[in-house]
């Protein structure tokens, strides 16, 4: 497995499903603004920043906010999201992820997180998996949003590897594009139709091993 020196993981939808908590928090905020917000609408927020997410919700409702109110609602949404997140338990790690991380460590492959979330450390600590990561690049250490490759390039740098030696695991189209833009191979986690640009697409880690990864990218 000499050609794969590091595996870089997105957080939401790859390691854990926090999308439901984001939805609950955005729904609560939309209700307060008098905007109808559905789970289908929530799909439009996948992989985009908090600022852009609120802009999309306001567009859906045909509303505008002052800068002060906009910032206030962003803070409120994050506070509500963290209320939900802080109740997370280790059993919310997605199926097969823990075994996959353990197998990578056993192979001597570097493991890094590459997430836009500013709450990544908090979530990893709640799930008790922080120690599996050699590097954590999150929303506090990057300025450019995916599909810009900054988060993954910093992950490669932090693990002492080159982009060509990295494999990225992503569930969002913007994340897949970020990996490609960074010159990395990428495994899409989810549906083929949304993630078709990835080198391979798998539904999750439940039936996917490090051996499968080696074979797929050989």
Summarize the structure.
With 218 residues, the protein is an alpha/beta fold. It has helices spanning 19-33, 39-43, 50-61, 67-85, 97-107, 120-127, 150-158, 173-181, 192-195, 210-217, and strands at residues 6-9, 110-114, 135-137, 166-170, 185-189, 200-202.
Provide a descriptive summary of the structure in words.
The chain has 218 residues and is an alpha/beta fold. It folds into two domains: 6-16 and 93-217, Rossmann fold, CATH 3.40.50.1000; 19-85, DNA polymerase, domain 1, CATH 1.10.150.240. It is built from ten helices and six strands. Strands 3-2-1-4-5-6 form a six-stranded parallel sheet. Helix 8 (173-181) links the parallel strand 4 and strand 5. Helix 1 (19-33) crosses helix 4. This is Beta-phosphoglucomutase. One of its GO terms (biological process) is carbohydrate metabolic process. Keywords: Carbohydrate metabolism, Isomerase, Magnesium, Metal-binding, Phosphoprotein. It catalyses: beta-D-glucose 1-phosphate = beta-D-glucose 6-phosphate.
Q: Quickly count the helices.
A: 10
Largest sheet: 6 strands, parallel
What is the domain tally?
2
Helix vs. strand class:
alpha/beta
Which range does the strand content fall in? 5-15%
Write down how many β-strands occur, each being a DSSP E stretch of 2 or more residues. Answer: 6
End-to-end Cα distance, whole Å, is 9 Å
Radius of gyration: 17 Å
Per CATH, the architecture of the largest domain is 3-Layer(aba) Sandwich
- Biggest β-sheet: strands ordered side by side in the sheet: 3-2-1-4-5-6
Which segments are poorly predicted (pLDDT under 50) over 5 or more consecutive residues?
none
Instruction: Indicate the overall shape.
Output: globular
CATH homologous superfamily assignment of the largest domain: HAD superfamily/HAD-like
> Average pLDDT across residues?
94
The SSE order reads: EHHHHHEHEHEHEHEH
């Amino acid at each position: 497995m000499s050609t794969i020196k590091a595996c870089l993981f997105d957080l939401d939808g790859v390691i854990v499903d926090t999308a439901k908590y984001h939805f609950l928090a955005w729904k609560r905020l939309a209700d307060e603004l008098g905007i109808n917000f559905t789970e289908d609408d929530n799909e439009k927020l996948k992989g985009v920043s908090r600022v852009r997410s609120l802009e999309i919700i306001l567009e859906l409702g045909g509303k505008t906010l002052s800068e002060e109110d906009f910032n206030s609602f962003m803070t409120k949404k994050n506070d509500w999201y963290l209320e939900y997140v802080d109740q997370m338990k280790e059993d919310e790690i997605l199926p097969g992820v823990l075994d996959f991380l353990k197998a990578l460590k056993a192979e001597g492959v570097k493991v890094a997180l590459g997430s836009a979330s500013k709450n990544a450390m908090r979530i990893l600590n709640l799930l008790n998996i922080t120690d599996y990561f050699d590097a954590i690049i999150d929303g506090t250490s990057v300025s450019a949003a995916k599909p810009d490759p900054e988060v993954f390039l910093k992950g490669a740098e932090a693990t002492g590897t080159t982009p060509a030696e990295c494999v990225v695991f992503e569930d969002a189209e913007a994340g897949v594009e970020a990996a490609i833009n960074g010159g990395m191979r990428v495994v899409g986690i989810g549906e083929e139709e949304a993630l078709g640009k990835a080198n391979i697409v798998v539904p999750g880690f439940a039936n996917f091993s490090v051996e499968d990864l080696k074979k797929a990218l050989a």
